[in-house]
Write a structure and sequence with these properties.
Blueprint lengths: L2 H6 L7 H47 L5 H19 L4 H20 L5 H43 L12 H12 L1 H7 L5 E2 L2 E4 L5 E4 L1 E5 L3 H6 L6 E5 L6 H8 L3
Antiparallel strand pairs: 1-4, 2-3, 4-5
Length: about 260
């Protein structure tokens, strides 16, 4: 194959699977730098939102028609609504909360009296800062998930290609035995009697109930839940299929 064509044509790769792994590794090498950049941007936007808050209070106090108390008190429902958007999954509810925050922001701009235009700009930048922080959190979660998947793929690639079937009375017991032998974290959690449920019925966010042959849970500590620091915990869901997964899926779809 022509070398120049190989550089210009994205389809001209000798081994697509190897190319995909190489691409994932190149992205993973940039992940620490991207995380550092996201941290700096998050700190900068947070400082700007705080300075925006202080500046609006100062402007309301220096404006002849300004109402400092109204400007200050309106920050609490606006911030509450903007934080609430983060924890709401329904798109219509999120839009309604955002519109309500903008309406309160308009009243806050009016509370600055004669500095209405400057107040509108500051309110818009304050709300925009919270939107940017929310998007940065989503981007950070994406890179954390990408790094986790990459570590799993790397571990599978570096593992012994010869896999010995562990002992067990059924497929579920053999799977748990394999995880216990290959993962110290799973082995430590399996030592806790209440961490393993066989079988288990779990209810999802939509209200549907799902049946699993085994569920292993490692709950995070209260400190990790509040601060996000420390082990986040994990869960392993095991479900045995009566045949190959594709055949089982086709049977469930009645194809």
């Amino acid at each position: 194959m022509d070398a120049d064509l190989r550089r210009r044509d994205a389809r001209a790769v000798e081994d697509p699977i190897t190319a995909i792994f190489d691409l994932a590794e190149s992205v993973d090498r940039q992940t620490p730098k991207i995380r550092k950049m996201l941290r700096y941007v998050r700190v900068f936007v947070s400082l700007w939102c705080f300075l925006d808050f202080v500046l609006m209070i100062v402007l309301a106090a220096n404006s002849p028609e300004g109402r400092v108390a109204v400007t200050f008190l309106l920050f609490f429902p606006i911030v509450g609504l903007l934080f609430g958007i983060r924890f709401v999954s329904d798109a219509r509810t999120r839009l309604a909360l955002f519109i309500l925050a903008c309406v309160l922001g308009a009243f806050q701009a009016l509370s600055l009296g004669g500095l209405l235009f400057l107040g509108a700009v500051l309110v818009a930048l304050f709300i925009l800062g919270f939107v940017i922080l929310d998007l940065l959190q989503d981007l950070r979660s994406f890179f954390d998930y990408f790094a986790l998947r990459h570590r799993v793929i790397e571990r599978v690639r570096s593992a012994d290609p010869v896999v010995y079937v562990p002992e067990g009375k059924d497929a579920v017991a053999r799977m748990l035995s394999h995880l216990s032998a290959t993962s110290p974290s799973v082995r430590a959690v399996l030592a806790i009697p209440s961490a393993l449920a066989t079988p288990a019925l779990l209810t999802g966010r939509t209200g549907l109930t799902y049946a699993f042959d085994a569920v292993l849970r490692s709950e995070p500590s209260a400190f990790a839940r509040i601060t996000g620091l420390g082990p986040a915990g994990f869960a392993v869901f095991v479900k045995a299929a009566r045949s190959f997964p594709v055949e089982t899926l086709l049977a469930n779809l009645d194809c």
